[in-house]
Amino acid sequence: FKGGDTCEYLLSSGRFLGEKVWQPHSCMMHKYKNSEAKNCLIDKHIVFIGDSRIRQLFYSFIKLINPQVKEEGNKHGNILFEDKSASIKVDFLWYPEVNGSMRQRIKSWTEGSMAKPHIIVAGAATWSIKIHNGSNEALTQYKINITSIAPLLEKLAKSSDVYWVLQDPVYEDMLSESRKMITNEKIDAYNEAAVRILNSSSRNSKAKVKVFSVSKLIAQETIMKSADGLHLPESSRDTNAMILMNVYCNKIMKPIDGSCCQPQPPLTLIQKLAFCFFTLSIIGYLIINLINRNNYRKNKSCTDLESGEEKKPAISTPNVSTLEMLLHSFCKLGLIMTYFYLCDRANLFMKENKFYTHSSFFIPIVYILVLGVFYTENTKETKVLNREQTDEWKGWMQLVILIYHISGASTFLPVYMHIRVLVAAYLFQTGYGHFSYFWLKGDFGVYRVCQVLFRLNFLVVVLCVVMDRPYQFYYFVPLVTVWFMIIYATLAVWPQIVQKKANGNCLWHFGLLLKLICLLTCIYFLSYSQGAFEKIFSFWPLSKCFELNGNVYEWWFRWKLDRYVVFHGMLFAFIYLALQKRQMISEGKGDPLFSSRVSNVLLFISVASFLTYSIWASSCKNKTECNELHPSVSVVQILAFILIRNIPGYVRSVYSSFFAWFGKISLELFICQYHIWLAADTKGILVLIPGYPMFNVLVSTFIFVCVAHEISQITNDLAQIVVPKDNSALLKRLLCIAGFFSGLLLFSAMQDQSRH
């Protein structure tokens, strides 16, 4: 990677994704809304100076500020635009030739008391070609004139942003007779002269006039759609205007999905401390490793010549072993976090916008489905939702979600609605799994709670520190964490009702159902009382965890979207375990779950329900309306899938080891994708190998999956050390963790204060 300013790439290179989406080379372009454009350009004066092509660009630019503007007025005269609400002035000055008149206008800004424009966009040539019938004398005069203007533009560039727009190619077959002398050969000669003179002038000055050459590339692809062969179609000039807006506004507005022209963010205090910690961990691990190797050499066993066996020295160093394991884990994690930072915070690797096509989503889906079916094995047990089956379920869902994210399929509503069901199914498993554990084991100890919370949150907490992102940014982890605590509180609060107790007296079952009804009532109340919900999560320090962009609305929206599905998972677990206890279902190998008649009826209803939901989701026209219905109806397809997967005995007895492998690291895959597979906080795609999209995806995916697997191993290793079974040791660890988070909150408050 050459490094340097991504603005140069934005202004000079790129390609079309599809017909209308422009992709700059190496960086991402933000699509500015009217409100964002106004905020960026407040109190600014912008001037477009040139011919009819510059006038087109002027109109496209002001439409980003006010879409109601109509293209009217004197075509061969000055046009003034003002947005009084934001004190923005945008002027078009009619100077169709690079001559003395244009020079005098530009000179007036460099001398005297006249206020200089903040942005100047200039360009002209086609009129010179037309008026002088494409003569060589006209080109020579153009060179003389632009040579005299260049120093003035350089002087302006010291305090303003100055852009020289190169001439777009024409579609010669469509040109009128009066314009036939305007050929692409002539245009290239004029462009070459302008670039050479402007670059020569910039070498002698620190300021630099930015050459806007990307419009040539855009025109080459779209000029055939021109109405007259000379002027660009509206979509192309709108793209040019959006590029201009990105060049100027990205460094001011800092949009997440606008990586072009954005400087690398400075390291925060917390990031610097994290860097020091990981560096010390790496150094500490290397020192201990060297000491252990030295000890190993000293105590190296001698080979027993008679038996041919080695006599191993009996060295027992449990404390060193634990410390070494801890430092080894942090050493690996430090290297991995460095890769995270380089991918998504440093301007080292390229990033590109997503672009959805049906083939980019559905072809990989078919591919992984074939792979998953190919790796089919027998399950160790044949119970409903056994461990292998739930891992398989999580695995294929995670792979589909990953493909959904990288292909940008959220723009296609039917796919979006089906992915919402997959997210709901994860939460359904949360309700089912945790309820089953507490109901069967009756283990409400602190150790269990700490283990679950650590495994869920460890990676996210580290990323919050290293990547400088709020906890709520990784919304799924806060969601499953809060739901786990709700499940725990519901079942742990007096009276604690577990299966062992309920077997002695059936009334306890009604007591548990009463608890579940109370939970459902609370969920219903909070979902329709946004104010109460926000008050609960706006209290400090909860607000530090659940606020995003200064409020908890995003958290409320995420929670509300799947508010009932965890309850559905708990209720399903209760009914299933009750039926299992009373031996009302058959879970033998190869046996259908119920009698043949009941199984066939349930299977038919399940298939019909599954397809009905898919038809409804595919016919969705409005995302808001469908999201309102989703919490109540998503369980239909989830239950239908469970019954289809488990009623036939032969289906229940097999699983895909391919999907199950991914299922075991599904949480790490979901979180890691934010920064090392996607880019710009999921808004774009990471580009490690530019120019080869398929090869790039293969390489970045391989690294991404390996990293996710390694982080899963690190989390498991650290969980054994950080969350010990011994209660007194666990209490000490909890006090240390409380101290860590207190320090984190303190440093976070200091950072916020320094930013303000």
TrEMBL record:
<feature type="domain" description="NXPE C-terminal">
    <location>
        <begin position="22"/>
        <end position="92"/>
    </location>
</feature>
<keyword id="KW-1133">Transmembrane helix</keyword>
<dbReference type="Pfam" id="PF07779">
    <property type="entry name" value="Cas1_AcylT"/>
</dbReference>
<dbReference type="GO" id="GO:0047186">
    <property type="term" value="F:N-acetylneuraminate 9-O-acetyltransferase activity"/>
</dbReference>
<feature type="transmembrane region" description="Helical">
    <location>
        <begin position="506"/>
        <end position="526"/>
    </location>
</feature>
<feature type="transmembrane region" description="Helical">
    <location>
        <begin position="355"/>
        <end position="375"/>
    </location>
</feature>
<keyword id="KW-0012">Acyltransferase</keyword>
<feature type="transmembrane region" description="Helical">
    <location>
        <begin position="396"/>
        <end position="417"/>
    </location>
</feature>
<feature type="transmembrane region" description="Helical">
    <location>
        <begin position="659"/>
        <end position="679"/>
    </location>
</feature>
<dbReference type="GO" id="GO:0000139">
    <property type="term" value="C:Golgi membrane"/>
</dbReference>
<feature type="transmembrane region" description="Helical">
    <location>
        <begin position="561"/>
        <end position="579"/>
    </location>
</feature>
<dbReference type="GO" id="GO:0005975">
    <property type="term" value="P:carbohydrate metabolic process"/>
</dbReference>
<keyword id="KW-0808">Transferase</keyword>
<feature type="transmembrane region" description="Helical">
    <location>
        <begin position="452"/>
        <end position="468"/>
    </location>
</feature>
<keyword id="KW-0325">Glycoprotein</keyword>
<keyword id="KW-0472">Membrane</keyword>
<dbReference type="InterPro" id="IPR012419">
    <property type="entry name" value="Cas1_AcylTrans_dom"/>
</dbReference>
<dbReference type="Pfam" id="PF24536">
    <property type="entry name" value="NXPE4_C"/>
</dbReference>
<feature type="transmembrane region" description="Helical">
    <location>
        <begin position="730"/>
        <end position="750"/>
    </location>
</feature>
<feature type="transmembrane region" description="Helical">
    <location>
        <begin position="474"/>
        <end position="494"/>
    </location>
</feature>
<dbReference type="InterPro" id="IPR057106">
    <property type="entry name" value="NXPE4_C"/>
</dbReference>
<feature type="transmembrane region" description="Helical">
    <location>
        <begin position="325"/>
        <end position="343"/>
    </location>
</feature>
<feature type="domain" description="Cas1p 10 TM acyl transferase">
    <location>
        <begin position="253"/>
        <end position="734"/>
    </location>
</feature>
<feature type="transmembrane region" description="Helical">
    <location>
        <begin position="685"/>
        <end position="709"/>
    </location>
</feature>
<protein>
    <recommendedName>
        <fullName>N-acetylneuraminate (7)9-O-acetyltransferase</fullName>
        <ecNumber>2.3.1.45</ecNumber>
    </recommendedName>
</protein>
<feature type="transmembrane region" description="Helical">
    <location>
        <begin position="269"/>
        <end position="291"/>
    </location>
</feature>
<comment type="similarity">
    <text>Belongs to the PC-esterase family. CASD1 subfamily.</text>
</comment>
<feature type="transmembrane region" description="Helical">
    <location>
        <begin position="600"/>
        <end position="617"/>
    </location>
</feature>
<keyword id="KW-0333">Golgi apparatus</keyword>
<keyword id="KW-0812">Transmembrane</keyword>
